[in-house]
Input
Amino acid sequence: MKLVIAIIKPFKLDDVREALTEVGVAGMTVTEVKGFGRQKGQTEIYRGAEYSTNMVPKIKIEIVCASDVAPRVVEAVQASANTGAIGDGKIFVLDVGQAVRIRTGETDETAL
Amino acid sequence: MKLVIAIIKPFKLDDVREALTEVGVAGMTVTEVKGFGRQKGQTEIYRGAEYSTNMVPKIKIEIVCASDVAPRVVEAVQASANTGAIGDGKIFVLDVGQAVRIRTGETDETAL
Amino acid sequence: MKLVIAIIKPFKLDDVREALTEVGVAGMTVTEVKGFGRQKGQTEIYRGAEYSTNMVPKIKIEIVCASDVAPRVVEAVQASANTGAIGDGKIFVLDVGQAVRIRTGETDETAL
Amino acid sequence: MKLPTGLAIAAGTTFFAALPAWAQDAALQAPAAAAPAATVDKGDTAWMMISTVLVLAMILPGLALFYGGLARAKNMLSVMTQIGAVACLAMLIWVIYGYSLAFGPESALPSKFIAGFGKAFLAGVTPASQAATFTAGVEIPEYVFICFQMTFAAITIALVLGSVVERIKFSAVMLFALVWLTIVYFPIAHMVWATGGWFFDMGALDFAGGTVVHINAGVSALVLAMLIGKRIGYPTERMAPHSLTLTMVGTGLLWVGWFGFNAGSALEANGSAALAMINTFVATASAGLFWMLAERFSGHKGSALGFCSGIIAGLVAVTPAAGNSGPFGAIVLGAVASIVCYFAVTVLKPKLGYDDSLDAFGIHGVGGMVGAIGTAIVYAPSLGGPGAADYDMGAKLGVQLLAVVVTIAWAAIGTTIAFFIAKAVTGGRVSPEVEIEGLDLGEHGERAYNY
Amino acid sequence: MKLPTGLAIAAGTTFFAALPAWAQDAALQAPAAAAPAATVDKGDTAWMMISTVLVLAMILPGLALFYGGLARAKNMLSVMTQIGAVACLAMLIWVIYGYSLAFGPESALPSKFIAGFGKAFLAGVTPASQAATFTAGVEIPEYVFICFQMTFAAITIALVLGSVVERIKFSAVMLFALVWLTIVYFPIAHMVWATGGWFFDMGALDFAGGTVVHINAGVSALVLAMLIGKRIGYPTERMAPHSLTLTMVGTGLLWVGWFGFNAGSALEANGSAALAMINTFVATASAGLFWMLAERFSGHKGSALGFCSGIIAGLVAVTPAAGNSGPFGAIVLGAVASIVCYFAVTVLKPKLGYDDSLDAFGIHGVGGMVGAIGTAIVYAPSLGGPGAADYDMGAKLGVQLLAVVVTIAWAAIGTTIAFFIAKAVTGGRVSPEVEIEGLDLGEHGERAYNY
Amino acid sequence: MKLPTGLAIAAGTTFFAALPAWAQDAALQAPAAAAPAATVDKGDTAWMMISTVLVLAMILPGLALFYGGLARAKNMLSVMTQIGAVACLAMLIWVIYGYSLAFGPESALPSKFIAGFGKAFLAGVTPASQAATFTAGVEIPEYVFICFQMTFAAITIALVLGSVVERIKFSAVMLFALVWLTIVYFPIAHMVWATGGWFFDMGALDFAGGTVVHINAGVSALVLAMLIGKRIGYPTERMAPHSLTLTMVGTGLLWVGWFGFNAGSALEANGSAALAMINTFVATASAGLFWMLAERFSGHKGSALGFCSGIIAGLVAVTPAAGNSGPFGAIVLGAVASIVCYFAVTVLKPKLGYDDSLDAFGIHGVGGMVGAIGTAIVYAPSLGGPGAADYDMGAKLGVQLLAVVVTIAWAAIGTTIAFFIAKAVTGGRVSPEVEIEGLDLGEHGERAYNY
Ligand SMILES: Nc1ncnc2c1ncn2[C@@H]1O[C@H](COP(=O)(O)OP(=O)(O)O)[C@@H](O)[C@H]1O
Ligand SMILES: Nc1ncnc2c1ncn2[C@@H]1O[C@H](COP(=O)(O)OP(=O)(O)O)[C@@H](O)[C@H]1O
Ligand SMILES: Nc1ncnc2c1ncn2[C@@H]1O[C@H](COP(=O)(O)OP(=O)(O)O)[C@@H](O)[C@H]1O
Output
């Protein structure tokens, strides 16, 4: 199995989720994160104190899926999260050794 | 070493932490996340605008442990986070190549 | 490629980011988390109700980098996040199978 | 001469709006001996000053919180700043020429619709100047009257913004406000409240500004929302209120402040103010509960936002009726307004498809109309209202309807003109990038929250 | 006949509650010539109207924020909506029959405990009706008196909820409020404040409602908490206040509004109101600091919540004493109340094990008792109080104690009855699922915060 | 004898501060017949009581929110509690000896600078005692005057804290407040407001306390900030306001409450209060918008915090001018103050490098000076001010400048003394660990937010 981690722009979440549903991904976990990268954050000024954050709000999506499904997942995310502008984000794929569904104790691919 | 990732229901956090302490896990990292899956979210209505979120608040626990301890960790989480209802969550296990304790520079299992 | 996960004290974030920039890391993703470990949390009292949290606010940094850069990344984090006090945090290193830049579709090390 | 200043006219009879003179009260409170000149009672002055302060509290923080809580977090400061800044602008142009246009002396302009510039820059007003009340021989310091009315202008333009926040440019808001106050608010205020004004002379009942403030603001908001277009993502995207807690706080402050608005509109601390006060309590209480009941009867849960919406709908509806109804008429009026607004907001709006972000029309416009028309009904003595025994409800209904229709037309046309001027000069709407990222960062360079 | 309406009785002597008539003031302010009929002073009217508005501000947003901030985020809207909705309900039944039962004319009912239905639906009240004050010949518009007292009923029932939020059903709250107001609040208000009422005739000292409002609400809250049971997870689970910021804001608004409550209870803008005002300042200031000192002496840090708790404890304790004490008596009273409440909340409550979610009993009940009994002490002229030279403290202590004990018993029994009715009809308590997920989603279908 | 008590002096002439007696008003409102003794008008009493309550609302919740929102979340409760606690302390020492030192009878002490202890513990004050106003023969209950002035002392010390929050110990704050009020505030209040006080006798214009409150607090804040040193991480680390929403709410509440402060300073509900009211509206409106314009002209976005800052700067500047200016003078004064403060805060402060956390000096100190000096200008009848025809602006400017310079020196020296005492006893500043973790946890053992 694979863990696909995608860092995307927040307003793309709905699109990505729909795209994933289409490739048959039923579950995922979402975290609000901050990203540093090429994309520059807004400059804020508070009574003359200027803060250029470099920190941009992002959404991290984590999906565990069967290894053979992973390429399609990656593709779906890449297609749906893409705006062509800097800061669209990254996808990382890691190996997962084991998966368990807490409710039933089912393991591995049946647990997803 | 293994990284055990558990997605659980928020109100189960205390139970899980106690169970983990019993199997000798001393440290863990906790993140507030949102989960999509079988479990359906509440429907909210604001002046007629209806939002059915599908997003359910969850807690993600990350524990790095020695490989031989991992099965007991998985078991402890599965037992303590279980309510038998949909949405109880998942456990994923990944390989960890290296661990460092920042304070001392100790590495690998002594770092945990 | 490697995924370096660092759990650090929140006020050390700026130092760590600077140290990472120096070793050539351009991107990273940051999450606010809570840590359990040796470090004890503050005791809070609200009208006599005492809560000793054991949960300490921490920052999780995730950096994906080329495998040969990873040791330098680990070192930079360890040096810059260190205060010598309990609770300085941990660094974990995992293998990453694939990386994609969403905007361009570039993969692996060119995607970082 | 309209507003007596300096030397008050002794024979000053009922001066402004549509209120029975509560002869019995006057009898109790007026000095027994014949008063050769109008006198100022410090109790009235105290009441009108605090009423003025209460109306300010309705704007900032009241309305700013009510509206702001309903917006998304990324637009919070934008909403609050737009409200605050137009209120400030309204105050400044009020003393420059607004007060004169609404309540100044007659001029070459058609005095049915507008006064003249004779009191521009508050010419001739001193701390000793006085303004008439509804009771002959009783006056209040003119500066107090000016301040009280100033807050009405300020809140009305702020209310309009509710339909277009989260996408309208700050600069467009400011220019729109300037034009709108000039061509819509000042004339309508004159028509309703000044002697010689059209509706005033018709005998339209509007105790505290249901027409001038609420119908006017609500209709303008609707037109403005249609002109500027929907928010990106509306109605599919989740746009839940970012803090109903703050909306609830704003609701409370609006209710609190509204006593200045309604009971203050008696211009005296007397039985009429007391009647306006009790009506403002019970109409609102009724409306708050009835909105929740309407939700239950529609198969939903009674909601906190429903409660707040009902409270506001009730306050809006009781505004023209405050001193023109008995308490039980007010209770019914509140309930009806609440139910009608509920359907306007939850059924009508989705059907018609316009994006009135915070339901400025659905609550202020619709509630205002229910109130204006309902006032003609609850005014009837048979229903516990203060109307005379020979009260002709049909005739009064006609008058009220006419005032409503003229206000709607005037507001719609004026808003259209003001919007196109604002759009031509400023562009009107923020860029899609700014809209998506939020107006706080895009327009003001700040975040509302940094936890 | 109790409340003079329309034609005020000229010889109207001290009418309601337990307040010395401040003869010296009366002498200064009453018209020099013999007044053939009671007169209304617009300064009094203005003061009583604004006092009424201030008490509303105590409820919404004041108490809603104070209580809401102490709750968990998932129950925030539930707390605020329950408070708002019972306040609305109280207002409606107040004008329907509550005012009549408390202050209406005598009837077949035992007038020691309750008045009759003679003023149901405010029968006979007009804008010209007047109500007596504590000064002969001085009256205020009856509508103002009705509104002022209406807000007292509204806040009292809202206070009760503090012990059972986070688990009680909205529908149960509404039904409970209806019954409780009818069988507990209206009778006790009658007994304390109306001529012919039991405590009133006994000469019990209760300037602004320590018995009616605070002991009553506190004891009812305690009984209700025990009847409904503990929250799931209490006391082991973390249940820290979700926003002490909001609690602090609520505290400030309560303090601000309490001047309407306490100084407004003088019913005139006179020296008695001024005394109530200064006492409300200094007792509260003292109590706020003394709670923090109590924390320090118990080996803890002085806390923000401690400061807020002290402020409320002080306000509660000074309520019966407001016009019945000198400023330095009030300072001592505030300090004592603060320390006693501190121990009630931090030592007694955990020991007894009941779950009074927001310490409605620990602060309002206990603080109210300290205040009621302490009033008999600080009233003594030897301690700077306004009592006459021959003041008999022992006797007065007996009277106060009796009033307290009767109130406790009445509240406990009435609450039990009201709860079982509410439980029978609505179920009383939400399901464990709703309790765990939060009442905002489960009962109202909303989230308080969407950041 | 200074403040008439009990037996008011019939011939009481203008008593306190620097205000023309509005003879015309007095003529209108005073009883026609010769009044043998000063009378109390209930309208005045009502107005002064509500003004007092409004000033309390400025402190808690007003200032607590304004300041708290600007702090970081980890210090929120610390900021609010420090403000609340010093306000309480100020109230207690005010009734113990502060009122006496400021307004008590003359004594052995040099009465130019301070009164004596003759009214310590409010000796001799009863509900029947009266205090003079600016109009001969018109008085208010002395308890009301004491309360009104008490809130001024309370807010002034609270304002000072703005420069040192996020690092000063709670215990240091309390001790500092005790000493500072005694050696700085009470004397300056005496000099400005009491007959026989130095500035008062010089004829310095200070309607509502620009010198006593704002310059005094601002300068003390600056000195205190320099003595205690910068916050760890200043100015490189991100220290953005944690909730500009709350700051905006605080701004609104401050504006609302400031009408009590400014218009209340007329001590009567008359034309002078009305003038102060309109000026407080328009100066503030102007200042709010001009700060945003200053930002635009400096190449930045007009910001929400800028709007709020302008509002406060305008309120500060109009404080001494409130009854001493015409509305258009006030508009200009507001605009100038706003622009000057903008540069003080954004250009001067970074250049000088001191860490005035919340710009207590940059806004209250600088704005106060602009107001004090500007008052001498806008007072001129040629500019629409209420000065007499033969008004000598040059001379008045000299007087104002002298008052400002003396206040600066007095405040600076007194603050230094008070700080070193506080530091010696308490340590002054929290440990770096507590500062980094936040004062809420470190000093109070609580978190402001638990979502
Ligand atoms: N090496 C990395 N490791 C982890 N996350 C990264 C890395 N580089 C970028 N990211 C994440 O991806 C986001 C987008 O990256 P950025 O460089 O801004 O744009 P792009 O991906 O379009 O080149 C960043 O905000 C950050 O959250
Ligand atoms: N494939 C997946 N990858 C990552 N997280 C998942 C995946 N499937 C489910 N989850 C997480 O597990 C949670 C519970 O899953 P759900 O399908 O609702 O219930 P259950 O595990 O009982 O079948 C989800 O809310 C989500 O956070
Ligand atoms: N086994 C673990 N797995 C995951 N995270 C851990 C583990 N142990 C510690 N952590 C994280 O590291 C942080 C620091 O650990 P702690 O034991 O407090 O101090 P130290 O690392 O200095 O010994 C914890 O707060 C937690 O977030």
Observations:
- The first strand of chain D starts at residue 39 and ends at 40.
